[in-house]
């Protein structure tokens, strides 16, 4: 439980979901930018990247939507958290493939996206590690 009195609590953005949404926007905009990913590569690599980031975002939202009052709820939430971590590593691999295959996609142009993805994975791991049943 929080050490802050209820009356003093303020609404805050949940970083994991906020970062997942920002990552989704950044990757979609990057892939759809002709300067970085030419049209001939979008079908083979771009659509796959967008589908994977959509999956990561969906799993982050699903994990956050579960209010763990029972052990079963906690396990379900941890399952979704694990899926987000898996999606993150799959996304890293797909971004590496993008850099290898598409000459105009460079590591330096993807630097912010890669940093945000690494932060997302780290945050999810921390959330999963510290997650517990509400009220205990």
Structure description:
This protein is mostly helical and 136 residues long. The chain has four helices and no strands. The model has no long low-confidence stretch (mean pLDDT 90).
Please provide a brief summary of the model.
With 136 residues, the protein is an all-alpha fold. The chain has helices at residues 15-31, 39-65, 71-101, 111-130.
Helix percentage range: 55-70%
Strand portion: under 5%
Low-confidence stretches: none
What general outline do the C-alpha atoms trace? elongated
The tally of helices reads 4
H/E topology pattern: HHHH
Total strands: the figure is: 0
**What about the largest sheet?**
none
SSE topology sketch:
Layout: H1 15-31, H2 39-65, H3 71-101, H4 111-130
Quickly list its features.
mainly alpha; 0% strand; single chain; 136 residues; 4 helices
